[in-house]
Amino acid sequence: MKKFAKLLSSFVSAALAVNFVAPAVSVVLADTDNTIASLSETIKAGLQRYDAAIDVSSFGLKVDNEENKAESVKRITDSISYVRKMPDMFSVQYETSLSLRIGAGVITDIVIKYTNTREEADARLAEVNKKIDEIIEQNINPEMTELEKALNLHDYLVLNTSYDLNQSVPDLYDGYTAYDILMCGNGVCEGYAQAYNMLLEKAGISSIMVTSDSMNHAWNLVNIDGEWYHVDVTWDDPTPDATGRVGHGYFLLSDKAFAQAKPEAGRNTAHRDWNSKGFEATSEKYDNAFWQTVSAEIFTRGDQWYFINKNGEYSRYNESTGNVDTWISLCEEKWYTWDDQNNMPSYKAYWDGKYMSLIISDNKVYFNTPTQLYSMNLDGSEKVTVGNYINPYETHGLVYGLKLNGGKIYAVIKQKPDDEGSLYEIIAIADAGINVTHKVSFIESLVDMINAMPDGTSGKFDFNEETVLPSEAIDAMRDRDITITFDLGEYSWDIKGKDIGAEETGDLNLEIKKDQGVIPGDMLKSVSHNNSSVIELDLQHEGLFGLKASINYLLGSEFCNNIAVLYTYNQAESKMDKMNTTLVDSNGALQLSLEQSSCYALVLNNAYAPIGTETSVQETTASETISESEPAVTETEVPEITTAPEVTTVPETTTVSETVMTTEQTTVSETTAPEETTVPETTTASTEPATEASSEVTTTEATTPAVTTATTELTTPAETTPGTEKPEPEGIKGDIDGNGRIDLSDLTTVALYLLGDVNLNETQLKFADVDGDGIVGLTDLARIKQFISHKIEKL
Q1: Contact 609, 236 (CB under 8 A)
Q2: Euclidean distance between the first and the last CA atom of the chain, given in angstroms as a whole number
Q3: Which helix (H) or strand (E) holds 8?
């Protein structure tokens, strides 16, 4: 809240002149002094009539000595402060200097010099009252509970108001009044509190404004079902303004909760030293309510409340039971960091969190992903796209939320979460029932983005809603030094421009169906063992691709480090043709290099489980999988300051011998509070009024050791002479390929040998027999695995 100047008073001859610069912040609209209240009502009535002199002679305000004079002046200044802070008195404007007439030892009149006319004041007040009526009509109905009314009006104010950080936004009364908030759309804490007061009063809910001198801040006490609760609308409004975002961390709290910081509940700063003139908020009913971590609008439909939680899940709260149900995960897409150089998403690192909004109109739900508007029924059924694909290359950003204004749905376009954002019109709500096909628009946008990619770069496109890569896109990639990943969720395609053939190709169907039963069961049995897992992958494209593609398929963690043998089904000759053998990586993913469509069978074997029915070799050492754990990414929502949340770098696709590397970027910002409010420490998520701080992103690399290699040098075996015994081969136990170290290549070689896919010479067999029992078996495989994963120190 902006600082108020102190009241100054002085006596001049027989009249008392008072310089009334601004009301004192400490005066609260809950004053219980009947004398002051009665005096205040007299002053209010005189100001509303625009009396040049307001008669106060009946109050016995003595000035016969210095002590009485000081007390009388204080009663008048307190009363005027009380009146000026009444929400409906903003329009009565007068000079800051006023005079007090004295007669017979008492103050008889307060002389006022007005700076506007009564007609002008009445017109301003009528504007506000009309606006309040419109807001109530659009957002409140008589069947709502007091809780629902308070929530709807809270969210309306936040979504339609911008906090005036530096008094830089045009307003009429410096942001202090309900007029500034409701008519100009900006203001400071006193304006927020007054506007919320007036709206609640119109909705039939009792509310008072509370202030804190030490914080230079104002907020509301609201009476819900007979209990008082604190509501700080100002601190639930993100700064800089984040269109479509609304915090709830300061909504309906007890005195106890309001006086404590609780970052995990969206509150980084405790309120303190407030003056509520005897009113107490003792009920703790809502101190741990679900809404505290919800940073988007909450919609009420009867006792059912609908919202999107921080994980992008469509959820429902039942007001009658107090239960929260999570229905549907609406979006698996990521909000990627922005590549300024290429004016497109980086597709390498992404912001933590889901930046989605709901709009509910006529029981139809609208929500956003980074590039698309969707609609569905209130129960979550019939999810469809609405309007065209929102091309980041054209909008210069991704969709970080929605706004409904004037019957039209707008996307909030940003390049990072703490941007203020711009509005991009998507569709009129009246036309939103028409499902406009977005495929053509997407294809055109895709080609434009590919053409805009500089040589030597890579990109990634979300194809969860698409299955066919158009020939135009393939032509745009041909013979260029670019690599593009087409992500379809469970699997993705990596295509290099240099790997596309010279001949013209048609559209490429990227869809892969799993376990469709195309390959006869006896064919699958002929290539699998008793303990094998078989997955059938049916590529939906027909014939040759016209290019080389690398398909990355996520099989699941249960197949980590399995040996995978790929077969293609030769339907003409009724046989299975073996293509290659590889290893599933420690993320449970497999990379396949293909040039044509077919129905493929993946035969997966656990390298440590007995093959078939052979059990002659028992494992004596527990086998543990090599894990490549990524750093945990957490989201914290705190409404004081908007800063960029954590950034996660998308791991590159790995082959069997690669180590996964992830890069985590976190933003640390320092902020300074505006003069009128105390602002908490910075974290990531929603916001609170404070001056905008620049966000610096620092990158730290953390390489998770998937495989550590030995470094012992190989020595060349000594030559033997005729007639002498052949010496033992020199080398490292476990180093089957003779490259001087024990690594994943050796592990794979032993696994393939046990499957019968490769032969080992005498020297290799010697090095593979790490336990020295004369047999290369599962125990040797397990020990090599444990060695390279640091489970044992030596073989």
Answers
A1: no
A2: 70
A3: strand 8-12
Q: How far apart are CA 128 and CA 178, in angstroms?
A: 8
Interatomic CA distance for residues 353 and 312, integer angstroms: 8
What is the C-alpha separation between 489 and 25, in angstroms, rounded?
Answer: 56
Number of CB atoms found within 10 A of residue 616's CB: 8
CA distance 611 to 596: 31
Which tokens is 588 given?
A: 């449970």
Task: Single out the residue of 335, 391, 362 nearest to residue 646, CA to CA.
Answer: 335
> How many angstroms from the chain centroid is the CA of residue 712?
49
Tell the residue number behind the tokens 């009565």, with chain if given.
92
- What's the pLDDT tens digit per position in 433-469? 543 333 334 555 678 788 878 888 888 887 877 788 8
- Which residues, given as ranges, of the chain have pLDDT below 70? 1-37, 165-175, 431-445, 607-730
Which helix (H) or strand (E) segment is 426 a member of?
strand 422-428
The beta strand positions in 642-772, using DSSP E, are 647-649, 661-668, 696-703
Whole-angstrom Cα distance, residue 186 to residue 172?
10
Provide the token pair at 251.
């909504």
Contact between residue 488 and residue 526 where contact means Cβ atoms under 8 Å apart: no
Which helix (H) or strand (E) element contains residue 198?
Answer: helix 189-202
Give the pLDDT score at 449. 80
CA neighbor of 32 nearest in space, from 273, 252, 208, 228: 208
Residue located via tokens 């016209």: 546
Share of the chain residues as helix, strand and coil, in percent rounded to the nearest 5: 20, 30, 50
Tell which residue, 261, 305, 258, 263, has the closest CA to residue 284: 258
Token pair of 212, please?
């804190």
CA distances from 360 to 132, 294, 297, 377 (A): 22, 16, 10, 10
Indicate the SS3 state at residue 197: helix
Residues in the chain: 795
Largest CA distance in the chain: 140
Distance CA 698, CA 667 (A): 7
List C-alpha distances in Å: 680 to 193, 242, 296, 415.
20, 18, 21, 25
Tell me which H or E stretch contains 493: strand 491-500
The whole-angstrom separation of Cα 538 and Cα 516 is: 7
Cα–Cα distance, 498 to 481 (Å, whole number): 6
Of residues 452, 419, 430, 280, the one with CA closest to residue 362: 430
Nearest to residue 763, comparing CAs of 717, 709, 712, 710? 717
- Entry pTM: 0.56
d(CA 243, CA 721): 86
| Listed residue (284, 211, 199, 229) closest to 30, CA to CA | 211
Cα–Cα distance between 459 and 447 in angstroms, integer? 13
Q: Report d(CA 541, CA 250) in Å as an integer.
A: 55
| CA distance linking residue 786 with residue 746, whole number of Å | 13
* Residue in this structure with the two tokens 């009252």, named with its chain if needed: 129
Q: Which residue do the tokens 């980074």 mark? A: 370
Task: Please state, in angstroms and rounded to a whole number, the distance separating the CA atoms of residues 270 and 267.
Answer: 7
Please give the Cα distance from 317 to 712 (Å, whole number).
63
The Cα–Cα gap between 661 and 651 comes to: 6
What pLDDT does 355 receive? 92
Q: Which domains does the chain have, with CATH numbers?
A: 8-116 (no CATH), 331-442 (no CATH), 459-605 (2.60.40), 708-795 (1.10.1330.10)
The token pair at 1 is 């809240």
Beta strands in 273-421 (DSSP E): 274-275, 299-301, 304-308, 313-318, 324-329, 335-339, 344-351, 358-361, 364-368, 373-377, 384-386, 398-405, 408-414
User: 313 φ, ψ to 5°?
Assistant: -105, 130
The H or E element spanning position 121 is helix 118-139
| pLDDT value at residue 71 | 93
Q: What is the CA radius of gyration of the chain?
A: 36
